[in-house]
Every structure is written in structure tokens, then in C-alpha cells.
Design a protein that fits this description.
This protein has 8 helices and 4 strands, in the order H-H-H-H-H-H-H-E-H-E-E-E. By secondary structure, it is of the alpha+beta class. The two termini are 36 Å apart.
Length: 201
Amino acid sequence: MADMNLQITDFDPSQTSAIYDALSASWRLNRDFAEMHLHVLRNGEHLDRFGAGGEAGGPADEAASQYAWRKNASFAIDHCADLINLRVDNIFRAPPVRRYDDSPYRDFIDQFLANVDGGGTDVTTFMRRNLPLYYVNGMDFVVDKQSPPDGLQPRTLAQERALGLLPYVHAFGPLERLDWACDHAGRYLWARYDLGEVPAE
């Protein structure tokens, strides 16, 4: 077997896909709008800039009175905090019900749902925290596995459970998904994510 340490590659982990480059500005705009409330959009200049039309801020094709009526008659833009929170609150107005009492893996499922991110966050809190950004640009939920202690290599699920190794979930937005490839059905063949900076020791 070849020594992987001796392999030379021109792979650049900072490289982004053409789709990422084309859409990242829109994703950032959507994210920023999602942090604003309806009254900020209505009373500020944000909606008026969109209504002005043209990248140079030229006059819109519609009359100012027509635009003012349309702005006041609408519930603004989907990407505002009020609409997003309304949807999220509606989903979680009652605690989600999960039924797996008859599963032979009930204890394992209980453990996983109580700590889905490896940091002590239960699944309901995790999903509620990430749902707002899901409504904005979509999210990728990636299930990963904990690494075993040094010198140990479990070979079965039972051995992983005995070592306390549980799966955990990452949530990534499109701004953190730098490059990817899909098959003909739109399923990921692979994806590369930006995990952020390594904390200083």
C-alpha cells in the first residue's frame, strides 16, 4: 500500500465552486434580511431600494404611488424575522411527539435525541435553533461519528455503544458548503464544508 503521507496533490481546500461564487452574495443578502423585523423593513430604506429598480438605483417602471400601495398592502418579504419566527413558532407551539417505544434501539435513540450535537443539545432545541436559517437559504444536516479513544478501534456497533460513541449532527448553511457534486437525482456524491477557524489553545 502506498504511503499516503508521500502523495502530492494540488487540491486547494479554499477553492469554491462556480455555483457558490454565483450565489453567495444572494445567500448573504437573504441571511441579512432574515435578521430584520417587518417594521425595520417598512420604516427604513431597504424595501425602497428594491423598489427603485436597477443596480444603479434608477427610477422604477411603476409610479411611486403604486409602489407605496403595493408595499403597504403586502406582508413584506418572506425573508424577514417576523414571518420566519411565525412559521417556527407554529411548528413548535406543542412539543413534537416521537414514537419509538417498540423499537429494540429505544435506549440508543433516547441517548442520541438527548444530545444530537455532541454538546448536550436535545433534538428539539437543535432543530428549533436551525429552522430559521433553513427557511432562509436551506440547511444541510450532516450526521458524523465520534472518534474512538487513541489505541481503540471498535469493530461493531455494540463495541461503539460500549465506548459511549454516539453519532452527532452538524448543521451547515450554503455559505459554509464550499463545493459539492450531485448525481442525476440531486443527491450528494460528496460535499466540502468550511468548519471555521481552529480555536486558539
